[in-house]
Amino acid sequence: MNLAETPTRTATSPTQAKSVAAVGGVEAWHVESPVVPMVALAFTFEGGAAQDPEGKAGCAQMLARLLDEGAGDLTSDAFQERLAARAIELSFHAGPDAVGGSLKTLVKHTDEAIDLLALALTKPRLDQDAIERVRAQTIAGLRYQQNDPGVLASRRFFKEAFAGHPYGRPSSGTIESISAITRDDLLALHAQVIGRGAVKVAAVGAIDAAALADALGRSFGALPEAGTLRAVPRTTVQDLGRRVVVDLDVPQSVIRFGMAGVPWRDPDFIPAYVLNHILGGGAFTSRLFQEVREKRGLAYSVGTSLVSHRSAAMTWGYTATKNERVGEALAVIGDEIGRLITEGPSDEELQKAKDYLTGSYALGFDTSTKIAHQIVQIAFEGLGMDYIARRNDMVASVTQADIRRAAGRTFADGRMLVVAAGRPTDF
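The structure corresponding to this sequence follows.
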């Protein structure tokens, strides 16, 4: 089938994604839209940095960076030239639980784009010269970050929060671990993770179901079954109430703090999401922004977000302030968390948060690529094909009782693990 000649007819909204199956059992969630003559794919394979070999943190990220560094008969330069000649955008990335990627192409180049994707997935060259080039680039980046307070604070936070667990290792690795990774390690991880049975795919754009099924069969369907993933044990944030200093001779401290969380797949995630928006997720309107920055001028930025991994969840936050005001900033943050535990938000505060979160949701679907990435993440989390249609109703229905329950699960007694990179004087 010539994909470049595939006709498109009617546009479909993200709330009307349909399932398309291909040879090999690969399934994609499909949103057909002929408005722009482009096709965007997003895909996610189960198993990421948590599967890195012992002592070789950064292996998954190195593999992701090497997948488009030559494949099949094409060297790295030849592969990149083929992409550039057709303005095809192909990229890969790795996170704690997944290796993923995206493809964007004009409809008339879809056949060639799918061929190049299939090569990258099924026959990556992993040439030694490419490995050494990516290794050198990665190590150079790690050396550059050695004195970055934000990077050091974040790394130390995860090391302490998830001590002895795969999530406690830096996904990008260390100079020592990156130096130890071999081609055999990369090949073994590729065989373990990159398989047709472990992939979620989303496709958006001017491609119909028949053409998409053909594309899926030629790319993901050509993969072998993935290997067996190592079990990643469930864990929670450790050492709540502890404060850790990363000593750096800088005038202000970068702070990372965290506590328990609720995973995306949990029924209480939406209430926790609304609660987080009120506390620190709402940019200029959040309590922390108002109390820490606007009223006291303690920091330029402060905020919180929800982190949801396969085997752990947490609420974590960030700020930075003068060394002598670290204790004051943390006291204000703790007070606001305490107020939400004991008093909760006002009815007006809760309604404004729900109005913002429902009204802004559509902004995450304003391009084909964004739609594809949103849909593949929903598929990866197993939330159901109708999640986009249900999501705003779930947010709008959050009650004060839901907020109190979410606060009990995330804030508990208000204790946090805190890491400050700097030289705080009142820590």
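The radius of gyration is 23 Å.
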